[in-house]
Amino acid sequence: MRMVFPSPVSGRLMDDLATDVGTLVESFFGDAADRGRAARQNRMPVPMDIDETDDAYQVTLDVPGVPIESIAIDVHENTLTISGQRVSGAKAESDEEATENGHAAETNPAAAPTVKRHRRERPSGKFERKLELPLAIESDAVTANLSDGVLVVRLPKADPDKDKRRIPVTKR
Question: Above 80 in pLDDT, residue 93?
Fold first, then answer.
């Protein structure tokens, strides 16, 4: 019987293959997994694009129905945090909630009418997106604009030579 041991080359190939397959699966299922996790945590999924130019990063988020007052943008070192909340419209009750709360029409016909929700597909709730940037940014020059439910945050890159200085060497 002959024993076969993996060579370093074949081991590296298998590692590369596992990494490639993992990346493929993550790219295919990653967004769906994030949306599912957001739904379970009563968090609103917010799609985000990140673009880079020579002098800045631009982060674009779809936040339809989110009031400008509820959006918070924080920059700390190289980390950008964007959070907010979208509250659903009229307070509606599902069939189960109405029955549990005694608001069903059959139970109390004199009560104020409530909205009976049949379907809910529009997301609502809180959201938070954190992004770690690979380069330093000018936090004092960050701008954000909200138009037609699209939030655009522009983060100018910091000049790498700004705080650079030469230290003189002295002889003792």
Answer: no
